[in-house]
Amino acid sequence: MMSKDNYKVGYKKPPKSTQFKKGVSGNPNGRPKKDLLQIRKEDINAIVCHQLEKCIVYKEGGEVKSEAAISLIVKQIVEKAARGDMKAIKVAMGLWSNIAEEREKLKWEVIRVLIEEGRTDDETLEKVMRSL
């Protein structure tokens, strides 16, 4: 065996000073942690939105049509619900409930703005109620 002083540096024999030390990690701090859940959630949301907004070309009654994917999905859900598919009915009612809730919030927000602007005459409020 060679002593420390006689260690020969060469092919596959790096200097002792540059070799990994026993018991010491090569990356003591480790890779920085990222909030993977948040990154993935944002990425997934962007991908889903992009895909749902894409136009799909299809044939209906021999006629070529183009429509957003989300529109076709909703159309399918409504058609299945109308035929009595319970899962589709549940999804359609959930969508309708969300839409009705959002419309109600919007209606009250519009009324609040009209009151703040002093436009509370019966005709204006009636128009708002009919349109929403």
Name its key features.
elongated, mainly alpha, two-stranded antiparallel ribbon, single chain, 4 helices, 132 residues, 2 strands, 9% strand
Order of helices and strands: HEEHHH
From the alpha carbons, calculate the radius of gyration and give it in angstroms. 33 Å
Number of strands: 2
Portion of residues in beta strands equals: 5-15%
* Number of DSSP helical runs: 4
Describe the oligomeric state of these chains in a short phrase: single chain
Going across the biggest sheet, name each strand in turn.
1-2
Number of domains: 2
Mean pLDDT: 84
Largest sheet: 2 strands, antiparallel
Could you characterize what this model shows?
The protein has 132 residues and is mainly alpha-helical. It has two domains: 36-83, no CATH class; 84-132. The chain contains four helices and two strands. The chain has a two-stranded antiparallel ribbon. A hairpin with a 2-residue loop joins strand 1 and strand 2. The chain is elongated. The termini are far apart. The relative contact order is 0.05.
Structural topology:
Elements: H1 36-53, E1 55-60, E2 63-68, H2 69-82, H3 86-117, H4 122-131
Antiparallel strand pairs: 1-2
Brief rundown of the structure:
With 132 residues, this protein is mainly α. It has 4 helices and 2 strands.
